[in-house]
Amino acid sequence: MLRFVNVCLVLGIVALAYVIYQVKYEARALDEEIASLGKQIDEERDALAVLRAEWSLLNRPERIERLAQKYLKLSPAQPRQLVTVDSVSDRDFDRSRFEITAVASPAMAPAPTIKPVAKPKAAVATAEAEPATTTALPWAAKIVAPVQASAQ
Amino acid sequence: MSESAKWNAAAARAERAYLARGRYRFRLACLGFALAFVLIGGRLVALGFIGSGPGGGSLRDISTTVHRPDIVDRNGRLLATDIKGATLYADPQKVVDIDELVEQVTSVLPDVNAAELREKLKNGRRFVRIRRELTPRQQEEIYELGQPGLDFIQEYRRVYPMGPTASHVVGLVDVDNRGLAGIEKFVDDNPQLTMLHPDTPSTEESVSISLDLGVQHVLREELGRAMATYRAKAAAGIVMDVHSGEVLALSSLPDFDPNRREQALEKDRLNRIGFGVYEMGSVFKVFTVAGVLDYGLASMQSTFDATSPIHYASFTISDFHGQHRVLRLPEVFTYSSNIGAAKMALEMGIDRHRAFLKKLGLLSRTPTEIGDTAAPIIPAHWQKLNTMTIAFGHGLSVTPLQLATATLPLVNGGIAVTPTFLPRSREEGMSMGTRVLKRQTSAAMLKLMRLNVLKGTGKRANAEGYRVGGKTGTAEKVVGRHYSTSSLLTSFLSTFPTDAPEYLVLVMLDEPQRVPESSNQATAGTNAAPTAGKIVERIGPILGVAPRLPGDQRQFDAKVLASY
C-alpha cells in the first residue's frame, strides 16, 4: 500500500517537474517576446514621432499656400463670397443651378466624359428641364446641395 | 539472577528512553527539513512572481537627454516634438589606433576638429563625446568604419517642424533638451501641464498653447511683407482674443529658427512684443480719451481748443494733422491731436492719469507664461509735462504686449484680463478679470475707433466687411539725445468687429521708409494701418468672424459659386 502511494507520488513529482519546466520555458519565451515587443513599440513610437514631425513639416501653412498658388485656381474667399444659409431662398437656388450650368458648360467642353454625380432628389427634378446642359461640374452639385437642402 | 534481572530491566528502560529520544530527534529533523523546503519553495514562488521584466537586461537603451512633451497649437497642430537621434562617442580604452580613428571619423564628419579630438582621446577616460545629432546616414557610415572604440547612444532631439513661425512663443531648448525660453521653459517649470491636456490626438503627452497656427502664419507673413514693402528695420505684431486674453498669434521680425539655436542669441532677433519697450506714440491716446470719459470729465460732445500749440517750459506741443480750431472729442481722436490729448490729460490731473494707467497695468511688468514682460520705463518724477506728453504716447515706454493687454478692457466692455499663452475660454477670462472701466466707456471707445477707420487716420485699415476699428500711432524715436523726425516707430492698434469685438490686432513697424506704396509718407496711417487691414482680412475667415457688408451686397451669387 505504502509502496504504491510512494510510486504514485514519485510519478506525480516527475510529471509536475516536467510541467513546471514546460511552463517556465514558455514564460521565458513570453518574457522575451514582451521585451522585444516593448522594444518594437518604442521603435514604432520613435518612427511615429518622426513621421508626425514630417507630416507637420509638409503641412506648414507657407508650403500649403505656395502649393495652392501653384496648382489651384483658387484665391482666398472674399467677404462678398460668404453667405449664410438663411439668406438663400429656393428661387436663388434654382436660378443658381441654371447659371452654374450655363457658366460651366463651355468651360468644361474639352472634358465631356465627366458625368454628373447622383444629385439630391430636388435637384434632379429641376435638372430634368434642361438635360442637354447637365454637364455641370460634379462637385458644383455637391456644394450647392447642402445650401439647397437647408433652405427648404 | 535478580542481579541480572535488575540489569535487564535497567537496560530495557535505557533502551526505551533512547528510542524516545531518537523519535524526538527524528521529528525535529523532519520539522527542520519541512521548514527548509517551505523557505526554498517560498523563495521560488517569489522569484517566479518578480520574473525578468520586459526591457530588462541588454535591451535597455541609454538615453542621457530627457523626453519632452510635444507642444501643439490650439487646434492640435504640432509645433515642437522629440525625435531620437544618435550621439557618437568613443571609449579611449577600446581604441586601437587613435590616429587612424580620428582620420576615419573626420572623413565622415568633416566638421569635427581632428586635433581637438586626438587630444581628447589621449587624455579622455571612458567617454569622449564626438558629435551629437547624427543623421541616420552618418550613423550608417560610422558603423561601416568598424572601429571598436566607437559607439552610439540614442538621445532625444527637439525638432520644430514649423521652423521660425512661432519661435518667440514656443521658445527653444539647449543641447541637453532642457527648456531655455518661451513655453519650453514654462513646461520645464510646470510639469503638471501635460496632465491638464490628456485628450490629445497622439498617444504622446503634449501641451497645447493658445496660438492658432493659421493666424500666426498670416501675421508673420504679412509683417514680413510690410517689412519688405516699407523697408522697415523690424516689424512686430500680436493678435489677442479680447475676452479670454489668449494670445492667438505673436510675431516679431526678424525672428529665429529654433532648429538653429545659435540664431536666437543675436540681439536683433529678440521678441519685441514682450521684451522690447517703446514709446508707442499716438496709440496711447486711446487711454487718454478712455480716461477722461471714464472719470466723467468729458463726453463725446466735449470740445478742446487746439487752435494753437501748447508752450510749456521750453517745450512746444503741436499737432501733426493740425486743424487750428476748436475740436470736438471725436475729432481729437480722429485727427490725432496732440494738443487735445494733452489738454484731456491735464483735465484728469497727474494723479488720476497715473492711477488710470496703473489700473490698466501699464506701469508694471506683466507676468506671462513666456516670462515677465520687460519693465516699463516710467519718468522718475512724474510732472505736469510728463502727463502732457504721456497723453500722446511719449515719455512712457512700454512693451507692445502691455499696450495690447491694456487695450482689452477698452474694447471688451471694461474687464481687465491677464494675457495668456495657454488656452482659456472666454467665460473663464471674463469671470477671472476685474472691472476697470464702465461699460459705456468701452462702447464709446469702440465708436471712436471705428470712426477713426471710417473717417480718420486709419482709413487704409478698413478690411472689407470686418468692421475694423483702430488707432494709428507714429512715434518719433530718440536718436542720440533728441527725437528724430526721420526715425519713426509706427503702430496700429485695432479691434474687430467693432459691433461685437472679438479680436485685437496690434501691428508695429520700426523705421519704415517713405516708399511709393505708402504714398511717400512714413506715418502709421500709410504703413501700419494697411498692414493691419490685410491681416484682419485674412484672419477673419480663419477665426470665424462673419463679414458684413454695408447695404445688401451679400447676395447669393451664382457666378461666384461657380468660380469654385
Secondary-structure blueprint:
The complex is a heterodimer of chains A (152) and B (564).
Chain A: H1 2-58, H2 61-71, H3 90-108, H4 121-127, H5 138-151
Chain B: H1 2-50, E1 70-72, E2 78-90, H2 98-108, H3 114-123, E3 128-134, H4 136-145, E4 150-159, H5 167-170, E5 172-173, E6 179-181, H6 182-189, H7 193-196, E7 206-208, H8 213-229, E8 234-241, E9 247-253, H9 272-275, E10 278-279, H10 285-294, E11 303-305, E12 310-312, E13 315-317, E14 326-328, H11 329-334, H12 338-348, H13 350-359, H14 384-390, E15 397-398, H15 400-411, E16 415-416, H16 426-432, E17 434-435, H17 439-455, E18 469-479, E19 482-496, E20 503-510, H18 528-543, H19 558-562
Parallel strand pairs in B: 1-7
Antiparallel strand pairs in B: 1-2, 2-3, 2-4, 5-6, 8-9, 8-20, 10-15, 11-14, 12-13, 16-17, 18-19, 19-20
Q: Please, could you describe this protein's structure?
A:
The complex is a heterodimer of chains A (152) and B (564). Helix content of chain A is 71%, strand content 0%. With 152 residues, chain A is mostly helical. In chain A, helix 3 packs antiparallel against helix 5. The radius of gyration of chain A is 35 Å and the shape is elongated. With 564 residues, chain B is an alpha+beta fold. In chain B, the strands form seven sheets. In chain B, strands 1, 2, 3, 4 and 7 form a five-stranded mixed beta sheet that branches. In chain B, helix 8 runs antiparallel to helix 18 and helix 10 crosses helix 17 (439-455). The interface between A and B is large, with 52 and 49 residues.
